[in-house]
Write a structure and sequence with these properties.
By secondary structure, the chain is mainly α. It folds into two domains: 153 residues, no CATH class; 89 residues, no CATH class. The protein is 62% helix and 7% strand. It has a two-stranded antiparallel sheet. Its main location: membrane. One of its GO terms (cellular component) is membrane. It comes from Nocardia bovistercoris.
């Protein structure tokens, strides 16, 4: 079991998926990919053979097809199913963020590219890299998980959608103008853990740790901290705004482009 602190500052315990289970899910996905590849190859052969294309064009088409199957399959399934491929669904596994929240296209793309390049195929020695890194990681994370900020867990039930945190009204305008994409996942996780445990801290520790986190976050965002507000309110407003934008991606895009 591993403890996760969600974006809503709620502690969750989820069982980590280890190598034997993940390997079985990988084999199932591999069989699906092979079937998909054979189907695409058969279809393309019907089109390309009569066309009598130049060999360079033919090689390029085959290469794109292979990359599409190796990368496109896991990215598409994990994006549409919020962290599940066919193999993971069969074994009751799910990819979640390091804070226990659902993944999105960015996480799936990072895992898919790393799987094809580093963990399994191009430089992965047919999965040796993935196995070694998973064995060395306390949460059985391969390189793609580390770079994407994800963990594979046993999760038969759908992850619940927690209630949205409401930011302090007097900081809503300030935080609403910020581009929060500059906050890395590890720093965001530290902020959420601080908010979860703030009631258990002494006043001195609450002020000291909170002030340090505010300085780190504002340095990443390249803004000055708002004056006259306690750290717990500033950090709470930032976490609440990140949650709001994760549920309304269109609004987040308008903030970044506005």
């Amino acid at each position: 079991m591993a403890e996760f602190t969600t974006g809503e500052a709620v502690a969750l315990e989820l069982p980590i998926a280890r190598i034997p289970t993940r390997a079985t899910a990988f084999v199932i996905d591999l069989l699906v990919q092979i079937a998909l590849l054979f189907g695409l190859v058969a279809g393309l052969a019907v089109v390309l053979v009569p066309a009598d294309l130049d060999s360079a064009w033919t090689d390029a088409i085959w290469l794109v097809t292979i990359v599409f199957v190796l990368v496109g399959y896991p990215v598409a399934f994990e994006t549409l199913s919020r962290g599940r491929s066919v193999g993971k669904f069969a074994l009751g596994l799910r990819v979640v963020r390091a804070d226990g929240g659902p993944t999105d296209f960015r996480h799936a793309l990072t895992r898919g590219l790393c799987g094809a390049i580093v963990d399994f195929w191009l430089f992965g020695s047919f999965g040796a890299v993935a196995v070694i890194t998973s064995m060395c990681s306390p949460n059985a994370r391969r390189v793609g998980d580390v770079l994407a900020g994800t963990v594979v867990v046993h999760a038969q039930a759908t992850l619940p959608m927690p209630a949205l945190v409401v930011p302090p009204p007097w900081l809503a305008g300030w935080v609403g103008r910020l581009d929060l994409s500059g906050i890395p996942e590890d720093l965001a996780l530290a902020v959420r853990q601080y908010l979860t445990r703030v009631r258990t801290l002494t006043p001195a520790a609450e002020a000291g740790i909170g002030s340090e986190l505010v300085q780190l976050v504002c340095a990443r965002l390249q803004v000055k901290p708002p004056v006259g507000y306690p750290p717990v309110q500033v950090l709470g407003a930032i976490v609440a705004e990140r949650q709001r934008r994760s549920l309304t991606p269109r609004a987040a895009g308008l903030v970044r482009t506005g």
